[in-house]
Design goal:
Blueprint lengths: L1 H75 L2 H12 L5 H17 L3 H14 L4 H13 L3 H15 L3 H13 L3 H9 L8 H13 L3 H15 L5 H18 L8 H7 L5 H15 L2 H8 L8 H13 L1
């Protein structure tokens, strides 16, 4: 009887072990299945996301390549190629900030290429994106002045004066407008309203021009001394040369020429783009100082000048010599 009971227990134990093993196996299989399913879903999700993101990434990279190419052409001076590249970049529908940057470049290119109508169009596009930008208004005024559209300038100035009257750039533009109207007295007042430390070189030039037009030699001389101290450290050879010419011109026009023409000033003056004008002033300086040798040397470089009044002055000098 005992042996039969033992057999029964052993059989039951074996069955229990089988059940336990079966349960463990099932759990392992279920765990593996869940893991495989999880990673399959994760992998599929990554693939779907990547498939959707990759074209966008490629498109963004392509857009940046176009913009980089446009900037490189612009820096190298290939303005037409640059303009085409910027237009292509705008066709990719970039952000508003990027659009404004591209339109600004196209505006600059149009001005450099003297395509003023196109320049106005690009300013309008910028204004449509961001109507609060003051540079659009100021650049439009500059274009009107450049094209001598004084009636348009006057209308814009009256409309926006209250808003921009504290802007130094606006004051300079208004002063230029007054100069174009030959109102040098009011133009001078306008330029002098700009704080001295904030005056750009272009403002100093216009103040000097106003003084000379108004024949205020003493004030011109005083202002010249003032700006020479400020500009001594500037690395702007053209402007320094221009100051030398102003100095000579003030002395010549005021009838009290006392300074000799320094060799270093001659070298400096000949760096100016307006070489004919600068050379004439130097020639008059040589006439006044009776420096015949330097005058003859200069005249050999001025054979192309056809100004009758200048040539008559030179002829009179040699005649009375």
């Amino acid at each position: 009887m005992q042996s039969k009971k033992t057999k029964t227990n052993n059989k039951q134990t074996t069955e229990n072990k089988k059940k336990t093993l079966s349960t463990k196996t099932l759990k392992i299989i279920l765990s593996i299945t869940i893991t495989v399913f999880f990673f399959s879903v994760l992998g599929l999700t990554i693939v779907l996301i990547w498939q959707n993101y990759l074209p966008s990434l490629r498109k963004n990279n392509d857009n940046q390549t176009i913009l980089k190419l446009a900037d490189e052409h612009y820096q190298a001076g290939y303005l037409e190629n640059s303009a085409i590249a910027y237009q292509n970049y705008l066709n990719t529908n970039p952000s508003d900030r990027k659009k404004i940057q591209a339109y600004q470049k196209l505006f600059e290119i149009s001005v450099l290429n003297n395509k003023i109508d196109d320049a106005f169009v690009y300013l309008k596009e910028i204004n449509l994106i961001d109507p609060t930008r003051s540079d659009v208004y100021l650049n439009r005024l500059k274009l009107f002045l450049r094209e001598d559209m004084l009636a348009s300038v006057e209308g814009e100035l009256k409309q926006m004066e209250a808003k921009y009257k504290k802007s130094n750039e606006f004051q300079e533009i208004y002063g230029i407008y007054l100069m174009k109207q030959s109102n040098f007295s009011e133009a001078l007042k306008t330029f002098l309203n700009i704080p001295f430390r904030k005056r750009e070189i272009s403002v100093h030039q216009k103040i000097m021009q106003c003084y000379l037009k108004l024949e205020k030699w003493k004030e011109a001389d005083s202002y010249l001394t003032k700006i020479e101290k400020k500009t001594k450290q500037l690395d702007n050879t053209d402007f320094k040369a221009e100051l030398v010419l102003y100095d000579y011109l003030i002395q010549i026009l005021s009838g009290r020429f006392v300074k000799s023409v320094q060799p270093e000033n001659v070298v400096m003056v000949h760096t100016l783009q307006e070489k004919e004008i600068s050379s004439k002033i130097l020639a008059y300086s040589y006439l006044i100082t009776n420096d015949t040798k330097s005058l003859e040397k200069l005249l050999l470089q001025l054979e192309s000048i056809q100004d009758p009044q200048f040539l008559q002055s030179i002829a009179d000098y040699y005649y009375f010599q």
